[in-house]
Design brief:
Gyrase A, domain 2, Rossmann fold, 3 domains, 41% helix
Length: 434
């Protein structure tokens, strides 16, 4: 039996513990004030140990195989205070229930056939998703759409293998005239099918990435005011005195359904103040790590831009002229705004979002695929490509061998023959209670 906290530890109204394994119903029943007579129903129960009330919780019993892991399971919905969580953890240990390893619940689920390996892997992508597009693609994989697509392609691969194996079984004396043209045509169609599958994949390493936007400019151009305006809260200190911002201040903002990590940095100037000088140096050292730099200036933009242009790559910068309430002269290639009045802010947000549009999934991308899965799809495609040009009957055994290799790659994709070492590596990235 294993247990884990399935929700983040911390002060909350509720927390959820999962317990899985043979005998868990009997063990948990020992600490409840009343028995639970039905499965898959929520019951309010007092949890009591050694005559002492531990918590008043809701409890659900799940009967194998109708559970997340496919085993007998219990979920305890308790109060989310630190003291309550610690008390329950100690209690589970006293009941000789082992604390689960990261991803162990999902690993058991895969081993028991409750979900395929790619469906399980996409749970992590779903948890890490920050946009609607990422969430929908991850949900599609979790719901089995990717498995269904791969299964259809796998069925066609198996049909071709059966046909090829039947050709090998023919005796020369049978006098059967077999043409491989049909096989080659079907193999080409299958190769294109797997190629389309790869094109429909959005790389999972891009999931949950927050688009970094650095605000750069000289002191007193209103960077901090603009920072607060974009965030919708007064997070940065605003002062008429130059050099107020001395470190990099971060905040997350949602623009047009995409999350951005906005960074307000120290104003760029020569300074005798060591703390301010350190802040400027930090900005200059980190500038290349940001996909987009907002170059903030004001009515003195000509002199300011001349000083800043050498520090940035024009391809990844957007010039923002602030204080339009004082000087509303529009210049080509600039976004004119006023952090004070809010004028131009909607247009600026649209421009920022538009800069990152290429990093978003395209309309053709339906699934999230990780590096392991993409490598296996490539393996299938290469095996099928190896069959090209083999139009002679004496090559039939070589075709059969390549088809076997393609099927093995596909089995690894679905997790049908994955080693314990591979499963351990995959699920080690999961949280403890997943």
């Amino acid at each position: 039996m294993i247990f884990a906290l399935a929700t983040p530890a911390g002060k909350a109204a509720l927390a959820v513990f999962r317990i899985s394994g043979s005998g868990c119903h009997e063990v948990i029943s020992k600490i409840l004030d009343k028995n639970i007579a039905e499965f898959n129903r929520v019951f309010l129960r007092k949890i009591i140990h050694d005559g002492v009330l531990v918590d008043v919780s809701t409890v659900v019993f799940y009967k194998s195989p109708k559970s997340y892991t496919g085993e007998d399971m219990v979920e305890v919905f308790c109060h989310g205070g630190f003291a309550t969580l610690k008390k329950l953890i100690d209690l589970f240990h006293n009941l000789n229930i082992r604390e689960a390893e990261p991803g162990e619940f999902t690993k058991i689920s895969v081993l028991n056939g409750k979900q395929t390996l790619n469906e399980a892997e996409s749970l992590l992508d779903l948890i890490n998703s920050t946009t609607d597009a990422e969430m929908n693609m991850a949900l599609g994989v979790v719901a089995g759409e990717l498995s269904n697509t791969v299964s259809v392609l796998g069925d066609e691969l198996d049909d071709i293998r059966v046909f090829v194996e039947s050709i090998i079984d023919f005796d020369d004396e049978d006098g059967v005239d077999v043409s491989l043209e049909e096989v080659i045509e079907r193999l080409e169609a299958l190769r294109l099918g797997f190629g389309d599958l790869k094109k429909q994949g959005f790389r999972s390493s891009n999931i949950g990435k927050t688009n970094g936007v650095l605000m750069l400019g000289p002191p007193n151009v209103g960077k901090s005011s603009l920072f607060n305006c974009l965030l919708g809260q007064n997070k940065a200190i605003v002062s008429p005195n130059p050099g107020t911002t001395r470190d990099m201040l971060e905040g997350q903002v949602l623009m047009h359904k995409t999350t951005f990590n906005l960074v307000d940095a120290a104003g760029i100037r020569d300074s005798s103040v060591s703390e301010e000088s350190m802040g400027v140096n930090k900005v200059l050292n980190d500038i290349d790590s940001f996909p987009l730099v907002l170059v903030v200036c004001d009515q003195e933009y000509k002199t300011q831009l001349k000083d800043l242009r050498g520090m940035i790559d024009n391809k990844k910068s957007l010039v923002v002229k602030n204080k339009s309430d004082l000087c509303n002269k529009q210049e080509d290639g600039m976004c004119l705004v006023s952090a004070k009045t809010g004028d131009g802010i909607p247009e600026l947000k649209k421009m920022i979002s538009g800069f990152f549009v290429n990093s978003e999934p395209s309309v053709d991308q339906r699934f999230i695929l990780n590096d392991r899965q993409l490598e296996l799809i490539d393996g299938v495609i290469k095996s099928l490509e190896a069959c090209q040009g083999l139009h002679y009957l004496e090559s039939i055994e070589l075709i059969a061998e390549n088809l076997k290799s393609a099927r093995n790659h596909l089995n690894d994709f679905l997790g049908e023959r994955s080693s314990d070492e591979l499963l351990g590596e995959i699920f080690s990235k999961f949280c403890i209670g997943k």
